[in-house]
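Narrative summary of target 7.
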Amino acid sequence: MAPEDRRAALIAATLPLLREYGTAVSTRQIAEAAGVAEGTIFGVFPDKASLLRAALMSAFDPQPAVDALAAIGTQVELRARLLAAVTKLRTGMSANANLIAAPKELMTDDAEFRERMFGGRQRIAAALAALMEPDRDRLRRSPEATAHLLLMLIAVRVHRGFGQGGDLGDMDDAEIVSVLLDGLLVRPSPDPSTESPS
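Modeled conformation, tokenized:
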């Protein structure tokens, strides 16, 4: 197997273990999952931390999300497009939710990781905005701003309100889209001009 293929295989085997066990995962577990001898890992990576860093970077690679959003296309109605987008993005964010704390332990250069994370979010937001672009005239805000609002709503759902309490963590995908497009009013307020005087 070519070195790059072996590297990719080790990262692929490590990622689910990193999600399950965090940084406590052992190189023995990784080797077993990859179907290789433990020493093989160190022929590709200088140490365990390097492999975990590579797996972490792979987990937060925005390209799969960008591709999934592009595959939705703009032929269907806006609400259906956004529901498909929320489902795909929430699934990906949920899979990586417990990895958010890992960079503190793994990343020797936190600034580089933050820059990659920011760049990744920007790429995903741009792909979301492209999904909304045909409906720009129907939106109160630009597709770009709306994309960032949608990402915030998904993040609040995935991270259960970021520990702030409340019941935002139980929103399903359809409610996230509804809150974005319809707001929080269950029904419109009565028009004061049509109310009879008491």
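The chain has a mean pLDDT of 87.
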